[in-house]
Design a protein that fits this description.
There is one protein chain. The protein is α+β, with helices and mostly antiparallel strands. It contains eight helices and 28 strands. It has two domains: 7-295, 7 Propeller (Methylamine Dehydrogenase, Chain H), CATH 2.130.10.10; 322-489, Alpha Horseshoe (Serine Threonine Protein Phosphatase 5, Tetratricopeptide repeat), CATH 1.25.40.10. Helix 6 packs antiparallel against helix 7.
Length: 496
């Protein structure tokens, strides 16, 4: 069995003969919005791309656009049938659609809930669809055969080549079903999961997630091996002749054997959100940010030398201690610890006593101790993943406050603003939503124009006044924030 391989060992083990690190892409293509999902035809001549803006794009293996269609909302699930004669997609508009090779809709099926993942066998006879609370099976004609309730968002689905094994993953749960919708097993894991797939023979299950590892499991869901990357693993896909490719947020594509041996580590120069490969394995296509890139793959790659034959698996995920992590960078540079930050106290229950926290690190520690997300807190709280999962309870103000906090920690300011705005809409009486929106407005403005402190303060004043009004005399966070703004502007407490 194989497990974590040190970074140094990975790099030093690559030879330019059989395991060369590939950095030059075959093509790259800018997409209208952040790429969420991607699918490749068996011959590699057609690649379908879905983005957060709801744009469905079909390109050839050179990156040239064949056709493009606009869907109502973001696309989160994609599959290509055979050599590209059919493209199936689903997303936040709660509809499953099949397009023909010319880009025309063959059929459209309203599901009634957001689609978060989609997989199909090569012939298109079986399509596994993951929603906010279930796994479903559909025919090529859009007929729903069955639905299995999961009570959590299925952000990843996988299906064996013969359609006999259907996998789904969401949060910390992994599901295995047969082609009639009967549950074979369900397992709760300690790691938050993002993607799951099954090899052709159904003998190995591949899983990627927020623990930064690529996992290989047996048909019963027992861990066989794992390999640690340097970032979140959001995409795993088995290869036709064995092995798996995985995309990580450490800007690399990993090519592994079925037994977990590292064959290649490909420099992709971007955080990978999705990945696919042709049946012939002559091209890998990865989505990263607002673009897709095509890469070659070495089908003759040999395992890297000097890999230990057996390494214990399931070592506890590392907990990042921010104050002791030399590589940790404060969110907005030096001095951030003294600046106002989103209020993370009292979110689970308004009646809880408010604990004063004066520093960024203390508030993060408080947030971790309150267990908003998991028992294994990390520097990155998995905000985008939680956005998906939040669909199950999307009307809950507490959920959007948590999402905003996660986005803040992840340095995704604009996203944090969106979540806090939504929180104010759901519950206009929640002072923390208004306060946190004000803080994020300030930092977004300052990020865009670091010299215009006065302008940044102005963007924060309206929601800050709302926070003070809704919180009353018992909520002093707005007063502290106003004091800070006054100090930045070089005035006394004139704002108060």
């Amino acid at each position: 069995m194989f497990g974590q391989i040190p970074e140094q060992q990975i790099n030093n083990g690559l030879s330019h003969n059989d395991n060369s690190m590939i950095s030059d892409s075959i093509f790259d293509l800018n997409i209208s919005g952040p790429v969420i999902c991607i699918a490749c035809s068996e011959d590699g001549n057609r690649i379908a791309v879905g983005d957060r803006n709801g744009t469905l794009t079909l390109v050839d293996k050179t990156g040239s656009v064949i056709w493009q269609k606009q869907i109502d909302e973001g696309i989160h699930g994609l599959a290509i049938i055979g050599n590209g004669s059919k493209v199936v997609c689903g997303g936040k508009d709660c509809k499953l659609r099949m397009f023909n090779s010319m880009g025309n809709v063959e059929w459209e099926q309203t599901i009634g809930k957001s689609i978060w993942s989609l997989s199909a066998d090569p012939n298109g006879q079986h399509m596994a669809v993951g929603t906010g609370d279930s796994i479903s099976m559909f025919t090529e004609g859009g007929l729903q055969l069955w639905e299995y309730p999961t009570n959590r968002a299925m952000v990843g689905t996988g299906i064996s080549r013969n359609g006999n094994i259907i996998m789904g993953c969401g949060d910390e749960h992994l599901y295995c079903l047969d082609n009639e919708g009967n549950l074979k097993w369900e397992k709760q894991r300690s790691d938050s999961l993002w993607d799951v797939s099954v090899d052709n023979n159904g003998e190995t299950i591949f899983v990627g997630g927020w623990d930064q590892k690529i996992h290989g499991l047996d048909p019963n869901g027992t861990d066989l091996w794992n390999l640690e990357t340097g970032g979140y693993v959001r995409a795993v896909q088995p290869l036709e002749n064995g092995g798996v490719i995985a995309g990580s947020h450490d800007n690399h594509i990993y090519h592994l054997s079925n037994s977990g041996q590292l064959l290649e580590k490909i420099d992709a120069d971007g955080e990978i959100t999705c990945i696919c490969a042709s049946k012939q394995m002559d091209i890998i296509v990865a989505g990263m940010g607002n673009k897709i890139c095509g890469f070659g793959i070495n089908t003759n790659a040999k395992p890297i030398d000097n890999i230990p034959e057996e390494i214990p698996v399931e070592s506890p995920p590392a907990i990042i201690e921010e104050e002791n992590n030399e590589e940790y960078e404060p969110m907005f540079g030096v001095g951030m610890f003294d600046e106002p930050i989103p209020d993370t106290t009292g979110i689970l229950n308004r009646d809880e006593p408010v604990i004063e926290q004066n520093t960024y690190s203390n508030q993060i520690e408080a947030s971790e101790n309150r267990n908003y997300y998991s028992e294994t807190p990390t520097q990155n709280m998995g905000g985008e993943y939680r956005e998906f999962a939040s669909e199950v309870v999307k009307g809950d103000v507490k959920n959007y406050l948590r999402l905003g906090n996660a986005a803040w920690i992840e340095k995704r300011l604009e996203r944090a603003v969106e979540h806090y705005k939504r929180a104010t809409e759901i519950d206009p009486e929640e002072p923390r939503a208004w306060h946190n929106l004000a803080i994020c407005n300030y930092h977004v403005a300052l990020k865009r124009n670091p010299e215009d402190i006065e302008g940044a303060v102005k963007t924060a004043m309206e929601p800050l006044e709302m926070a003070k009004e809704k919180g009353g005399t018992d909520y002093n966070a707005p007063d502290k924030t106003l004091e800070y703004f006054a100090s930045q502007l070089g005035i006394e407490n004139e704002l108060l």
